[in-house]
């Protein structure tokens, strides 16, 4: 895993797009501050920029550095939650590449549970873009073998499929919008 981590980090630092296993499904990833790499993901997926990408973080502490405030109730949910949960926050305290935040300034962030993803984020000291490894509106891939060859050919680096975690059920994360007024999560998926 150490050599795979070094290769992955090197590609991200060069501004490349990676194909990698996450705590949910296989994803396309890059440095969220590299506009060329973010644009490449939109091109690969044939996705409209009006549909922002999500970012992964490794810890609650890193998340705290990206959004203005996290209500203590939400911190408890994030700390104890066992299923991957992507939260759409109303705003961010950082400037991101175009395509990371929505027109209204909101941003989707997930604290990743996959050890390899956490290692990538820690080693780069940056959040990581994540979006499903499929063409927009196509079904998401259940495993590496289900990823369309066009996606595999379009990325700059493919993380070893041996790092894919075997799970009984493979699915995208839950997605919820955090309402600052009601101080609650509104589940969207």
From TrEMBL:
Compartment(s) of residence: Cytoplasm
Organism: Membranihabitans marinus
UniProt-recorded Gene Ontology molecular function terms: ATP binding; double-stranded RNA binding; L-threonylcarbamoyladenylate synthase; tRNA binding
A cellular component term, taken from the record's GO annotations: cytoplasm
Enzyme superclass (EC): transferase
InterPro entries linked to this entry: DHBP_synth_RibB-like_a/b_dom, Sua5-like_dom, TC-AMP_synthase_SUA5
NCBIfam families, alphabetized: L-threonylcarbamoyladenylate synthase
Alphabetically ordered keywords of this record: ATP-binding, Cytoplasm, Nucleotide-binding, Nucleotidyltransferase, Transferase, tRNA processing
Protein's UniProt name: L-threonylcarbamoyladenylate synthase
């Amino acid at each position: 895993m150490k050599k795979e981590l070094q290769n992955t980090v090197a590609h991200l630092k060069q501004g490349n797009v990676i194909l990698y296993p996450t705590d949910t499904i296989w994803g396309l990833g890059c440095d969220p501050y590299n506009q060329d790499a973010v644009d490449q993901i939109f091109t690969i997926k044939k996705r409209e920029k009006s549909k922002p990408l999500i970012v992964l973080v490794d810890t609650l502490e890193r998340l705290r550095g990206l959004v203005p405030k996290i209500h203590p109730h939400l911190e408890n949910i994030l700390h104890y939650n066992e299923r991957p949960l992507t939260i759409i926050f109303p705003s961010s305290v950082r400037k991101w590449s175009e395509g990371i935040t929505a027109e209204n300034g909101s941003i989707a962030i997930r604290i990743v549970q996959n050890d390899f993803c956490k290692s990538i984020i820690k080693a780069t000291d940056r959040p990581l873009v994540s979006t499903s490894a499929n063409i927009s509106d196509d079904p998401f891939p259940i495993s590496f073998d289900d990823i369309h060859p066009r996606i595999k050919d379009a990325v700059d680096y493919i993380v070893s499929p041996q790092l894919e975690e075997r799970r009984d059920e493979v699915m995208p994360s839950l997605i919820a919008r955090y309402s600052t007024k009601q101080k609650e999560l509104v589940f969207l998926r």
